[in-house]
Amino acid sequence: MLHISRSLTKLLGELKKLPSVGDKTALRLAFHLLKSPENLSALAESLLEVRDGVRFCSTCFGITESDPCHLCTTPRDDASICVVEEPQDILAMERCQAFKGRYHVLHGALSPLNGVTPGQLRIAELLQRLEKGLVKEVLLATNFTVEGEATALYLTRLIKPLSIKVTRLAHGIPIGSDLEYVDAATVQRAVEGRSEL
Amino acid sequence: MLHISRSLTKLLGELKKLPSVGDKTALRLAFHLLKSPENLSALAESLLEVRDGVRFCSTCFGITESDPCHLCTTPRDDASICVVEEPQDILAMERCQAFKGRYHVLHGALSPLNGVTPGQLRIAELLQRLEKGLVKEVLLATNFTVEGEATALYLTRLIKPLSIKVTRLAHGIPIGSDLEYVDAATVQRAVEGRSEL
Known about the structure:
Helix content of chain A: 40-55%
Order of helices and strands of chain A: HHHEEHEHEHEHEH
Oligomer: homodimer
Distance between the termini of chain A: 64 Å
CATH topology of the largest domain in chain A: Dna Topoisomerase Vi A Subunit, Chain: A, domain 2
Strand content of chain A: 5-15%
Structural class of chain A: alpha/beta
């Protein structure tokens, strides 16, 4: 990259660290921001605000500006906890409005090959919350990947002995799908979990 | 967007102003940055550095940190000026290393329907540079869009009476193209501009 200013080169480097941003996208974003200095300032300031204002809730480990967070303090069903991998998964759950209980964010999933062991996830904190005896059901909403499934299995083995019901999100055909194009493993799970009409 | 912090909502709003960033991409970028606070700080700081350090060169109106810019001060061919629409077009020209002269950035192209008139482009400044009598050739490298072609035509009419040669980048078949898939207008221009072997 010839004849480009030092600070712009640095900005391009930072932009390229973002997911799915390569050389061309970084250039496009940088020149877009250069064209509107007020957007550039607003973006920089809101980044700093997020850095200084957003933290993890000490109860559920979701993101929040006030600790404990909104979801831990508003009246909700204390008898159920939904366990998710990442803070953004709470948004996906809240969007469907089907779950009325509390949340717990693990901040990852078990992945021994990548060096992620139970000690690095917020599992001890989850067990502490369960020990209080209020919780009757733990809904495991980790991702449906190898790591997410392994984490769900691991947690099931830990939680079941506490005589707490452990549930998992249903597998099945996504709404609006054409059966022809759904993968075999999903169809198999949908048959196993079929419901009577 | 339920239960999300105020500063994060603001950041999502700013990210969505970027080209081809929608709701989902903004969320992905924001949570990616939240996961690595050092990247978040570095991005914010480099944005501020660019805002404070990068300006337009007072000669060619390209971007620079020192005025006049590197391209205007290093030894290059003073007899030719390449006219481009945007600062990033200089990068595309420099990448090919086929042009050894100076540059001039118009900061846009004529577009009467969008309210872009000659007065809003750096055309007066271009004419001032030409009046010094050093320039023998102006290479018009505006985009090959309706606006870019109109701007090239407009500039040709202004510059030709000064007895300066006005040239335009060649039209033709892109390298590596399959003739079958090249549009008719491009093939027509390639035939008109055919060269003897």
